[in-house]
RNA sequence: GCCGAUGUAGCUCAGUUGGCCAGAGCUACUGAUUUGUAAUCAGUGGGUCGGGGGUUCGAAUCCCUCCAUCGGCUCCA
């Protein structure tokens, strides 16, 4: 048979050769490192014979599929160790995940705690050293059902029910046998280092009405060194955590008496917010947006009009009653903006109308969902609603997208994915408004923009809002958690509910399309993200303090203050460290505060009317006049904001 | 909301077989020092040990309960 390798070379092997044998035929080193094989695009066991012509990719630890195979096998190994210490427990599923693997187990009333991790890890290593092979066995489904019925394992029976009739596979290593599709690594000996990470409850089948199983997360590596490196990397990531840095850099805080999920922005956070808002306002002005301002509350009837209340009352703060009316804190700005548009008596000549507001919204997020600044109950959104005709839609949508890309460039955001959520036709009239043509039309338009602008995106069916398709920008936090940073949504339903119309050229009234967009997301999430993205080292334009002026001794405080005055007059945020400390100490403190520039002024500088410039994280840049430095800073800020480009 | 863990001074953290007035470093304040590129020295403050209840002669330490935070699950218009 002919085997085609990824580099397109073709080699001849006898039919029935295993991928492992093929690896050995290439090199001993490869044979030692290979974990699984991708045969005709399907990941399979190395030991399964290949019987006919195929493309073959030998998967090592360096590949995603290789890692997944290793981790999946590790989950089985952990299950074996768990069964040793907790006999009688029942297993649900144990897949590989982004970083490692987990297994969901029903402990049958037994208690496990992270104190048990050590002994489980030790047992796993002990079993791994036995190099027990993962043995694949095929069985008729009816026999498998019989087997698990006798065993009284309702979980595996449930899994079986969802499998097609015919042959199913089992894998056994050592004393553990599991219903499993595979594939697996050849034997447990490949697993050299394991670490159990954490314990968590997880609803069976992800449904909160079901029983909660115990999920045990772990990770494994082919070398101890790699585990050590991974743990060190986690430690490093923790240092970037916005909750830690936000406290250290005095950006935001929480307070028990104010309430959970209600961040308080400290002066440094206030400056960052002002900078973001001024960027947004300038950008939106240039793009023809008009700014509006709306109250934080509205009557119940408005939320009935939008159609949100019946579905989302649980995630709104409960209403307050005044004069016999119920008022709600607004969970979003769109209805208020719709009211403004509705009052504008717009004609087709006025469209598109773009209404923008940094609106403050309140959402009653479940207590367990709160997470630093990333998930809060009070949020201020970089919101705007664009009302346009169908003909204008594509251009408007593209303009919004271009705005996203401009921002990404300014902030240096390189790792992101656009998640394009579409509807599912079966749920028209239920989860989604029943406008099949508009769905198709708008989804096609959105897809076209994404393709034309060459933006990395994934399409996820059945995830859109009820009123139209949407794009979410997905980014990752320092600790690897995925977040929706910003969102861009099409709405062809709610404007009609509000009776929004414009007068068209033929003198008829038509309903506009609406685009909801928030490229900078919310202040809370965006700044939380930026703290981690920059590891607290904000770019000059965004940094709460831009320049720290450090006099060598108190004798030079007056000169330092005059320099500070000069900088402040040019809108540069400078401060003078007047403490009676040594220069080394002042520098250290300014470095810890991550202030971009330090100016050292002493005898020499005062005599020559100069400042010695030191850049955060970089060191001494030499001396220049205060005016020169001032110009340098202004130029740098313009460069960072892409001004005059 | 659910499962599990955690909560000691402004910050970081010691302190549990229950037992002298609960400790350290940093910060803050006071004083001395007048300093040349990542921590000058000394002194003084500062804590309802998350809140409430209980067990006990005695609780930061044991039990109950509530709150908050953390790791997940579920949710995210």
Number of beta-strand segments: 35
What is the CA–CA distance across the termini?
60 Å
CATH class of the largest domain: Alpha Beta
Question: Unreliable segments (pLDDT under 50, ≥5 consecutive)?
Answer: none
Q: Class by helix and strand content?
A: alpha+beta
* Strand proportion: 25-35%
Helix amount:
25-40%
Q: What oligomeric state is this?
A: single chain
Mean pLDDT figure: 93
Largest sheet: 8 strands, mixed
* Overall geometric form: globular
CATH superfamily of the largest domain: Bira Bifunctional Protein, Domain 2
CATH architecture verdict of the largest domain: 2-Layer Sandwich
CATH domain topology of the largest domain: BirA Bifunctional Protein, domain 2
Number of domains: 4
- For the largest beta sheet, what order do the strands appear in spatially? 18-22-23-30-27-26-24-25
Task: Give me the number of helical elements.
Answer: 20
Q: C-alpha Rg, in Å?
A: 30 Å
Short description:
The protein has 645 residues and is an alpha+beta fold. It is 36% helix and 26% strand.
